[in-house]
């Protein structure tokens, strides 16, 4: 269960950092990096909607992060968080692919995200497999 504990701690910290990155005062810099060729009309209500939606995604990741940190105290009991993280990363990777293909996301940014998603998925699958063999 040591692998599961380490995974849950890492996920918890990473997802909380994601929450910080989606805070409204931080989002504009992130949007400029993600979508370098897109004009961000900061004063328009549509931008505020985008910013708020992005923050809700951050809140969801932050919630998973808090539960993962809590679950690291007893990883066997909270092992179900591992497939939750895997599913979250798969769905988010699909969204990032959509954003790159149709939303003009910067290719370098997208490739970095793809590596991060793949790393979490592979690590999660290894932890899940090891925990199942341990039972």
From TrEMBL:
<dbReference type="InterPro" id="IPR009310">
    <property type="entry name" value="BphX"/>
</dbReference>
<keyword id="KW-0472">Membrane</keyword>
<keyword id="KW-1133">Transmembrane helix</keyword>
<protein>
    <recommendedName>
        <fullName>BphX family protein</fullName>
    </recommendedName>
</protein>
<feature type="transmembrane region" description="Helical">
    <location>
        <begin position="53"/>
        <end position="71"/>
    </location>
</feature>
<feature type="transmembrane region" description="Helical">
    <location>
        <begin position="107"/>
        <end position="128"/>
    </location>
</feature>
<dbReference type="Pfam" id="PF06139">
    <property type="entry name" value="BphX"/>
</dbReference>
<keyword id="KW-0812">Transmembrane</keyword>
<feature type="transmembrane region" description="Helical">
    <location>
        <begin position="78"/>
        <end position="95"/>
    </location>
</feature>
């Amino acid at each position: 269960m040591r692998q599961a504990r380490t995974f849950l701690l890492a996920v918890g910290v990473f997802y909380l950092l994601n929450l910080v990155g989606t805070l409204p005062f931080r989002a504009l810099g992130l949007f400029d990096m993600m979508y370098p060729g897109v004009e961000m009309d900061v004063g328009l209500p549509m931008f505020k909607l985008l910013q708020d939606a992005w923050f809700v995604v951050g809140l969801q990741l932050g919630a998973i992060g808090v539960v993962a940190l809590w679950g690291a105290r007893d990883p066997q009991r909270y092992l179900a968080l591992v497939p939750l993280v895997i599913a979250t990363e798969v769905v988010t990777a699909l969204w990032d692919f959509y954003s790159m293909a149709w939303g003009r996301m910067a290719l370098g940014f997208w490739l970095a995200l793809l590596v991060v998603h793949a790393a979490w998925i592979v690590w999660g699958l290894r932890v899940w497999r090891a925990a199942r063999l341990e039972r």
